[in-house]
Amino acid sequence: MAKTHGMKKTKEWKTWSSMRERCLNTQHKHYHNYGGRGITICRRWDKFENFYEDMGVRPVGNYSLDRRDNSKGYTPSNCYWATKIEQG
Question: Do 51 and 1 meet the contact criterion of CB atoms below 8 Å apart?
Fold first, then answer.
């Protein structure tokens, strides 16, 4: 995948990349909790640029990507930037 966005070292890119690893890489240590139990990623988010367009800049502070419904996959309508308290 050509890196044309210049954002490889950003928190947003690292979040996107980690999401993909958990859901798609059968060798990832947490795959069984994500891809292994059927958690998918919408096709639109195959491209980082689309993920970034939908999710925007990660807020300053201790935020991470969360799903509103943990039985559903990663989609724009099911994801948001959440604090640790919100995730708890």
Answer: no
For the chain, give the number of residues: 88
- Beta-carbon contacts of 75 under 8 Å, excluding residues fewer than 6 positions away, are 42, 45
Whether the predicted pLDDT of 14 surpasses 50: yes
- Cross-strand partners of 79: 67
Q: What would the pLDDT profile of 33-80 be if each residue is shown by its tens digit?
A: 999 999 999 999 999 999 999 999 999 999 999 999 999 999 999 999
Q: What is the C-alpha to C-alpha distance for residues 59 and 68, in angstroms, rounded to an integer?
A: 17
Q: How far is the C-alpha of 2 from the C-alpha of 83, rounded, in Å? A: 32
pLDDT for 3 equals 52
Beta strand spans in 1-88 (E): 63-67, 79-83
| CA 9 to each of CA 6, 12, 27, 44, 46: distance values in angstroms, whole numbers, following the listed order | 8, 8, 23, 21, 18
